[in-house]
Amino acid sequence: MLHLPKMRPCILATGGCGYIGSHVVVELVAAGYQVVILDNFENSTHKTAARIKRLCKRHVTIVEGDVCDRALVEDTLLQYNVNAVIHLAGKKAVGESMADPILYFHDNLLGAIALLEAMRNCDVGRIVFSSSATVYGASEMQPLAETASTCVLNPYGRTKLMIEEMIDDVTASAQDFKAVSLRYFNPVGAHPSGQIGENPTDVPNNLFPYVSQTAAGIRDKVRVFGGDYETPDGTGVRDYIHVVDLAKGHVAALDYLFSDHAARHERINLGTGTGYSVLEVIEAFSKASGTRVAYEIVARRPGDVAVSLADATFAKTLLGWEATHNLTRMCKDHWAFQCGGKPDEKDSSFTRQLHFSENVLSGS
Ligand code: UFG
């Protein structure tokens, strides 16, 4: 049985204008939730905010501010009668966290503390936390079930694990405080409208945006980090998950938190259970974009593991959720966003590239 408030429940999405947050907000509104976004626009734009509003076709409140500002969080929780929080705000680049760990401790840990304190002070007792498969470290046991041991390899991962543990303590201290930590594998793709997606302003660290920018002619070629792993083609294997599937996983987690049988704090993997190598991704993206994506195999990237795969059984049994989009769809939607996002920037080389792609696709 669902314990939903009489009004449509109101959800605060911290970081709701970011890559994952924007998709989560669209799915929450589609599922009937009211949404208030709290975002400081450090790694998101007002253009995305406008696009979210257009896609939702319903009112979405946006509060501009920082999750570390407890007074602001409390005001927001009270003013909008918030019933639950999805906490996505935070820093997320592994390399940056190694160069500046204090920045990560400051933003991620202090943000979580301020939010949890504000929730306690305002009697808001449900939270979905955006965690990461990075908490499993370099585990040899694949696929990774939630019971696998955890291991921290960098400050970013440490903040994710520490926040999960903080939530353990907070939920243990108050009977009516319930939580789900979602451990994301490799989120990729974009909304099928092509309106929202991932748009890194610096050189991308992650494979999908790098491949996509190479297909668009912004980068020359993809550097494939390592061709000598113990995998079928020697390149790294990951569990890529379409961001819309991931977003729906948040809605399922929230429904679960509003149910009778919600446990104190569950950790749940969000992945597909299927792995693809770097070369398979490049091949699939080349097909989806109609562009031959050039690549070169170079040395391994320090800190990378050969394989990272989710055991996605728990999400299915507990939440009734499973991913439905395949790799082709991930590539197509990622490419559609890449194509839809660029013309605003009046990039003539991109326009040329687009025409080239259209010609390849139409066979002319
Ligand atoms: N890769 C390349 N070339 C690139 C970028 C990546 O060959 O330019 C390879 C990597 O070596 C790896 C695969 O592509 O084999 C995926 O790499 P990503 O950087 O896209 O993703 P990771 O698996 O390294 O990292 C992701 C998230 C992190 C999270 C980590 C562990 O981006 O936030 O999963 O869960 F910490």
Give a structural overview.
The protein has 364 residues and is an alpha/beta fold. It contains twelve helices and 14 strands. The chain has one domain: NAD(P)-binding Rossmann-like Domain (Rossmann fold, 3-Layer(aba) Sandwich), CATH 3.40.50. Helix content is 42%, strand content 16%. The strands form four sheets. A seven-stranded parallel β-sheet has the order 3-2-1-4-5-6-11, sandwiched between helices. The longest helix is centred in the N-terminal third of the chain and has 21 residues. The protein is globular and about 55 Å long. The C terminus is likely disordered.
Secondary-structure blueprint of this entry?
Blueprint: E1 10-14, H1 19-30, E2 34-39, H2 46-56, E3 61-64, H3 70-79, E4 84-87, H4 94-99, H5 101-121, E5 126-132, H6 155-173, E6 178-184, E7 186-188, H7 207-215, E8 222-225, E9 237-238, E10 240-242, H8 243-257, E11 265-270, E12 276-277, H9 278-289, E13 295-298, E14 307-308, H10 313-319, H11 327-341, H12 348-362
Parallel strand pairs: 1-2, 1-4, 2-3, 4-5, 5-6, 6-11, 7-10, 8-13, 9-14
Antiparallel strand pairs: 9-12
